[in-house]
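Example record

The entry below shows one chain as it appears in the dataset: sequence first, then structure tokens.
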Amino acid sequence: MGEVVAAIFTTHVPRLMIKDLEARRAYMGRNVTTFYDAMERLARERLGALEFDAFILFDTHWFTTLDYVLNAHERLAGLYTSEELPAMLHELAYDYPGDPELAHAIEAEARGRGLHVMASAHRNLPLHYPTLNVMSYFNPGPKPRRVLSVSVCQTASIANDLAVGAAIGAAVERGSQRVVLVAAGGLSHKFWDLDHARKRASASPDDISSLANRMYDERMLEWFMAGRHDCVLEAAPEFRAQCSPEGRFSHYLMMAGAMGGADWNWRGEQFGRYEAALGTGQAIVHFARPQEEAIRSDAAARA
């Protein structure tokens, strides 16, 4: 029987791929993001010791219209340059095993529930940088885990997202794989206009484009930390309407649906700060099973 062994809500911002220290400072000034170290530490301290087979990643830059689409290719390999920010993110080589078996299992489960989900292995189906940036940190090395990238359906409701998430969770349980879910996207998502964006490119929360958005993001993060996913879901319609969250918040909603919806109670552990990225709200939060969280707390207390 398969299971979800961890869940992660994470930024995927292009600045993650600025490798040169001076270039980082030139772009962000004195307030450089904490996410470089945070991503590496999460991968090392939480994923490194975890036994699992595959990542299911909800990609907030992959917008579809009539179906939720799953990348069902056997292998995900190529050279990526961002059409959005080519100077910052270019010629990124990637090579991961795909997971067509899991993709088709999810498709079958979802269609059996009357949902519009399609597993696609059409030639040249693209990958997007939320998948690639995050996997470059979480899935490195000569033997990477399998990767299943999932789209965000731009015409879907919150109820649709939760229902598709529930189908994904059921398909995982029916299978034999241990899976890590990754919601690759931000919180509030209002950019600064072009005349101000470069001046407000630091990671400081003071550079969030709206104080109201920052306050709502911080409230969401408090609920993440407390494991109050019921509160997050209750607030989701208002959050979507007021703060224009990235991907319409579907990355989180599908993940929460897979974890039981309002019954999900795993507490979050934040890595790095809550930060701005050109006005948008960004964070990295890892969710572990309550018993695993308790084991780590006991070990820390004895150390």
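Notes for this example: The mean pLDDT is 95. The chain is about 40% helix and 20% strand.
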